[in-house]
Design brief:
The protein is mostly helical and 417 residues long. The protein has helices at residues 3-6, 15-32, 35-48, 55-65, 70-91, 98-105, 118-130, 134-144, 151-157, 174-178, 186-216, 230-241, 250-261, 267-285, 293-304, 316-330, 341-365, 370-383, 393-409. The longest helix is centred in the middle third of the chain and has 31 residues, at 186-216.
C-alpha cells in the first residue's frame, strides 16, 4: 500500500493543529540539539523526504502534504518551519552561517524516479515548488546578508557578482526585499527592521566622517564607504545636503513648498505648482527639460491624475495618494508591470544625482511616501536580481545614490550632514 493510499481518508485534525505540531517539534529540537543536527533534521524532513524517525511528526507531515489545498498552502508551512530555525540563529552570531546553509539545502533536492515512494515524491515536489515562491525569494535574500565575504574578494569579483548579492549594501531595500509576503510574522518584521537600523547607522557614521574629512581637507583617515568614485561621492553629498537654488538646499525648498501648500485653494492649483517644484532640478540641469517629451508626458500625467479632486482643497490623504502614483510614474509602476523606461531616461539624460534630487523632493515634501520610494527601488532591485552587476552599472549607481540621498536627509541617530 502506498503512502497516498494510507491517507486516502485524511485526518480530521485542522491544518493549523498539524502545522503547530511541526513548528513545536522543530522548536523543541532547537533547544536540545546542535545547529548541525538541526540542519540534518530539516534536510531529512523536507529535502530528502524519507521516512522520519519521529512517527508522530512524520504522520503530521503526511497529512499536511495530502491536504487538497497543499499545492497552494504548503509554502506557508515550509516558510514558517524555516523561520522557526532561522529566527533564533539570527540572534546568535555564531550561528549566522547556518542561515545560508539552510537555504542551500533547497539546491540539493534529490531527483525522483518512477519507483520513488509516493510520500517522498510529494514532499520533494512541494519543496521544489517552494523554491519558486516569493517566500523563498525573501528567505534567500536574508541568507545573502549572512554569506561570508571579504572586502578584497568583493572588490575583485564585483562585476561578476549578481545584483542579488548586493542587498547588504543597501539597507533601504531591506523592508521591501525581506518582507515581500503577507505572511511575514512580527519576529521577521522586527528582524528586518533591526538589520536595516544597524546597517543604516553604520553607513551613516562612515559617510558623516568621510564628508567631514572632505570639508576640512584633511587626510584620508576615513575611506569612501560607497562604490561611487571619490569625486562623484563628494559632488553627490554636496548636492543632497548643500545649496542647490540660491542659498537653499532641497530640504529648505521642501519646507517652503509645504508652507505654500497650506495656502492653496484647490488640488488643481496644488498640482500645477508641484510640477514646477519637481521640474526645477531637471530644468536647471538640462534646458531641454523645459518642454521635451518627458516633461510633456509628466505634465499630462499630473493634470489627469485624480482629477475628481481638482476642485477640492488638497487633503493629506489626497496628497499621499498622488505622490505614490507620481513615484510609480517616475521610477517603476509595479512588481507585475516592471516598466521603468522613464527612470532610465532620466538617468541617461541628467545623471543619478539630479534624478535622485527629483525623487528626493517628493519624499522631503511628503515623508509619508518615503517607504513607497524604497519599495519602488526594491522592485527594481528584485527585478534585476539574476543580472550580473557588470551588466547593470546604471542600477548599482542609482542604488548608491539612493543610499546617500536618504541617509543624509533622513537620519535620527545623532550624526549630521
Amino acid at each position: 500500500m502506498s503512502s497516498m493510499d494510507s491517507f486516502a481518508s485524511w485526518s480530521s485534525r485542522p491544518v493549523s493543529d498539524l502545522q503547530a505540531q511541526l513548528y513545536g517539534h522543530l522548536a523543541e529540537c532547537r533547544h536540545q540539539e546542535s545547529t548541525e543536527a538541526l540542519l540534518q533534521r530539516f534536510q531529512s524532513l523536507f529535502i530528502e523526504g524519507n521516512r522520519y524517525g519521529d512517527e508522530e511528526i512524520w504522520a503530521a507531515l503526511l497529512e499536511l502534504i495530502y491536504q487538497p489545498e497543499a499545492e497552494r498552502e504548503f509554502k506557508y508551512t515550509l516558510n514558517r518551519c524555516s523561520y522557526t530555525l532561522v529566527n533564533p540563529w539570527y540572534t546568535q552570531p555564531r550561528d549566522h552561517w547556518a542561515i545560508p546553509a539552510l537555504v542551500d539545502l533547497f539546491d540539493q533536492i534529490p531527483a525522483t524516479t518512477t519507483d520513488t515512494e509516493d510520500a517522498t515524491w510529494r514532499i520533494r515536489q512541494l519543496s521544489q515548488n517552494f523554491t519558486t515562491t516569493e517566500q523563498f525569494a525573501s528567505l534567500r535574500r536574508l541568507a545573502a546578508l549572512f554569506e561570508p565575504t571579504t572586502d578584497e574578494a568583493e572588490a575583485v569579483n564585483f562585476e561578476d557578482q549578481s545584483v542579488a548579492q548586493q542587498l547588504r549594501h543597501y539597507p533601504f531595500l531591506h523592508d521591501s526585499s525581506l518582507l515581500v509576503t503577507k505572511d511575514s510574522d512580527r519576529e521577521q518584521k522586527d528582524r528586518a527592521h533591526n538589520l536595516r537600523q544597524q546597517s543604516e547607522a553604520q553607513l551613516g557614521i562612515k559617510l558623516a566622517r568621510y564628508w567631514a574629512q572632505c570639508r576640512l581637507g584633511t587626510g584620508g583617515s576615513f575611506p569612501n564607504p560607497t562604490r561611487l568614485p571619490d569625486d562623484e561621492l563628494r559632488q553627490a553629498l554636496e548636492y543632497y545636503t548643500g545649496k542647490v537654488e540660491g542659498n537653499r538646499s532641497h530640504r529648505d525648498i521642501a519646507k517652503m513648498f509645504e508652507t505654500y501648500r497650506q495656502t492653496v485653494r484647490s488640488f488643481r492649483e496644488f498640482k500645477e505648482e508641484f510640477l514646477e517644484y519637481l521640474l526645477a532640478p531637471l530644468t536647471n540641469a538640462d534646458s531641454r527639460y523645459h518642454n521635451n517629451t518627458f516633461t510633456r508626458s509628466l505634465r499630462q500625467f499630473v493634470r489627469e491624475t485624480m482629477r475628481e479632486f481638482d476642485d477640492q482643497c488638497p487633503k493629506d490623504f489626497t496628497i499621499v495618494t498622488f505622490c505614490r502614483r507620481l513615484l510609480n510614474f517616475l521610477v517603476i509602476h509595479s512588481r507585475k508591470e516592471p516598466i521603468f523606461r522613464r527612470f532610465r531616461q532620466l538617468l541617461n539624460d541628467v545623471g543619478s544625482s539630479v534624478t535622485m534630487g527629483v525623487l528626493l523632493r517628493v519624499v522631503l515634501f511628503c515623508a509619508t511616501v518615503k517607504p513607497w520610494l524604497e519599495n519602488r527601488m526594491a522592485i527594481l532591485f528584485n527585478h534585476h536580481e539574476p543580472t550580473r552587476c557588470g551588466e547593470a552599472p546604471w542600477l548599482i549607481e542609482a542604488l548608491e545614490h539612493t543610499n546617500v540621498a536618504l541617509i543624509t536627509n533622513f537620519n535620527n541617530v545623532g550624526y549630521s550632514f
